[in-house]
């Protein structure tokens, strides 16, 4: 981990930051010098590597890594009840409730009444959402 962290060219926090709107992991843009590369605890090393990975992923994707990993990954064209997404992913209800709206705004998913007749909603990927899912998996 230390050798990977030494290769990171920007100064990153020793913990994972709060995600921005759209659940993006935007980090600093400043290039760092050689300072700050000393011994770090494993939690800081893992945080830096994960944040850098997310930043690189999001540089090439219109959808955040968090939304791809937690929502896009499990959806398909047939749909899934919104309330089931939290149980499948183990993330907060707030994060789950925000993600379908972001995907709808990007025309990657649609939200419809549950065909089973319950009061809930079903979210499913559009054709563009399926392409995003394929890109995420790649």
Write the layout of secondary structure elements.
Blueprint: H1 2-7, H2 42-59, H3 65-72, E1 80-81, H4 82-89, H5 93-105, E2 109-113, E3 121-125, H6 127-137
Antiparallel strand pairs: 1-3, 2-3
Helix pairs in contact: 3-6
Report on the architecture of this protein.
With about 140 residues, the protein is mostly helical. About 45% of the residues lie in helices and about 10% in strands. It is built from six helices and three strands. It has a three-stranded antiparallel beta sheet. The longest helix is centred in the middle third of the chain and has 18 residues, at about 40-60. The chain is elongated, with a radius of gyration of 18 Å. The model has no long low-confidence stretch (mean pLDDT about 85).
């Amino acid at each position: 981990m230390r050798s990977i962290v030494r290769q990171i060219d920007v100064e990153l926090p020793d913990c994972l930051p709060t995600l921005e709107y759209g659940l993006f992991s935007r980090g600093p843009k400043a290039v760092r010098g050689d300072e700050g590369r000393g011994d770090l605890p494993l939690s800081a090393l893992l945080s830096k590597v994960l944040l850098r990975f997310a930043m690189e992923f999001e540089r090439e994707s219109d959808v955040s890594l968090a939304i791809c990993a937690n929502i896009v990954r499990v959806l398909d064209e047939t749909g899934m009840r919104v309330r089931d997404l939290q149980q499948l992913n183990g993330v907060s209800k707030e994060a789950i409730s925000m993600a379908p709206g972001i995907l709808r705004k990007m025309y990657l998913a649609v939200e419809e009444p549950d065909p089973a007749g319950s009061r809930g909603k079903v979210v499913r990927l559009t054709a563009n959402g399926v392409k995003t899912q394929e890109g995420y998996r790649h």
